[in-house]
Amino acid sequence: MRAPRALPGGRLDAQVGNSIPVGALRICDVSLDQLLASIPDGDPDELLVRQIAGERLPAHVAIIMDGNGRWAAQRHLPRVEGHRAGIEAVRDTVETAARLGLRVLTLYAFSVENWKRPRAEVSTLMLLLKRYLRSELNSLLRNDIRFNVIGRAHLLSADVQDELNLAVERTRDNRGMLFNLALNYGGRAEIVDAVRRAIVAGVAPEQLDEERFASFLYTAGQPDPDLLIRTSGEMRVSNYLLWQIAYAEIYVTETLWPDFRRHHLLEAVLAYQKRERRYGGISPSPAVIG
Amino acid sequence: MIRLVSGVILAAAALAAILFLPIVALRVLAVAVAGLAAHEYLRIAERSEEREGPYFAPSRMGAARSVLSQTVGVALTVALAAVIAWQLDVSVELLSFVALVWVVFDVLACGTHIQRSAAVIVAPIYTGAPLGMLAVVHATHGWRATLMLIATVIVSDSSQYYVGRSFGRRPLAPSISPKKTVEGALGGLVVGTAFAVLAGTRLFPDATVAGLVLLGASIVVLGICGDLFESRLKRAAGMKDSSALIPGHGGILDRIDALLFAAPAFYVYLKVMP
Predict the structure, then answer these.
(1) What's the whole-model pTM score?
(2) What's the whole-number mean pLDDT along residues A217-238?
(3) Interface contact flag, B140 A81, Cβ < 8 Å
(4) Min distance A203 CA to chain B CA atoms (Å)
């Protein structure tokens, strides 16, 4: 339906997100229009979008989707009902992020530690994941979103892997936002995996620098997250993208994940744009003057 | 006049409850309404058994059996409504077992015919489950979804009435509900489905039109079935109203007969619409 956005070279460049390619400026403006077009007239979200500076969008937003259990507990419902309700938030967030013109969105769906949860909860999560993938594939294609999985996905059950592979395969040629789903993911596990890969690749100790190391991570070639959002008010990183969030702005909201919607994401982006990013220096980085 | 006043009061109270009651209080209310509706259903069922049941024979335990069957029916209903409303895990199995125990006891100890025992078990399925589901719809999808369901039923009911009054020719179910017409039912189907699609696209941005058409049509058709089902029960029992609880309106079952059949459709839609 929508014309696919052409990224130069069709590939995300591996630079850290503070330098936005010139060509992207035009693309971002187009995207804000795209997002505005999807918002009904008179909706308060329209005002939020108009405050966002299209040329200073975070290139990569990572989200820790926390609070499903608490949402369910508030309603005296079992935890799985919270996960079910959380899908709605995933859908809204992915669509908004794509329309906003983010280049990468990474959602933390299932950590390596989540296997400790009751077996019934884990199997429901997997069921919901399969169902989400099946029902959202068309929407991903429509929004030109490229789907990707990070984490030790090969340890998930075969039927889940089939569904994941299908989604990755079908969206392979999309040129819009890259949507990473972190599944069976752990930040330390990722670093260990990267070290293993580096050893297998025969990298000599003196050859290994930060840039080279990053190329062994699950997120090789992607910009690092500029903005890390955590819902449900917890002030923890929870083993998420440990290497990549080195300079990410962290935004914590009290909103529980199932209640997270378009305007919450827009508010987070606005808060991000008001911050001064220095990357360890003393003057703000030129690309993100507040 | 009494009918109008009590109707307005009832509608306002229901609206206020859906909008303002905390989730747990609304759930308790749904369970209580289920219990009341079950009580009315059981009385109608018993009356119809006495009137036309070919298998009716006075129970060995006399009036005590009547009290017992009422108690078991209402208790099972309240329990099932609560189990669904709170989405408790194991208890449905437990309840079906209790229902079985009741049938065994009723048939063996009271010497009741199986049909009469089984009619008691219909109470939780007929009234308890739908009201429990209604409470879950409210808890998971909020007051908007709850009102959408109720409004679709009301829109369907009124459009059936007005279309039937203006264009009604062929009776739909003359032996059960002589005033219902095929034309009215079709009018309800068109208007009710249109309403569900309009409200649904605003409420669930990701819903497909095809899915909403199916949902709307199911709500209307099941609503009509619920209406006819209750009318048939009352006719068999020779009763006009399910009770005299609401002045001018009859009983609670008369008010929610269509909703009882429509709520499960809505609930299932929300569960399968991922």
Answers:
(1) 0.79
(2) 96
(3) yes
(4) 46
Among A114, A193, A239, A259, the active-site one is A114
Taking a contact as any Cβ pair under 8 Å apart, which residues of chain B between 11 and 30 contact chain A? 23-24, 27
Q: Where are the alpha helices (DSSP H) in chain B?
A: 2-20, 23-52, 63-85, 91-108, 114-123, 129-167, 182-203, 209-237, 252-272
Is A114 catalytic? The answer is yes
ipTM reported for the complex surpasses 0.90: no
Nearest to B89 among A74, A78, A92 (CB): A78
**pLDDT tens digit sequence for B123-173:** 999 999 999 999 999 999 999 999 999 999 999 999 999 999 999 889 999
Task: Considering the candidates A45, A66, A224, A226, report the single residue annotated as catalytic.
Answer: A66
pLDDT in tens, B197-222: 999 998 887 788 999 999 999 999 99
d(CA B246, CA B252): 7
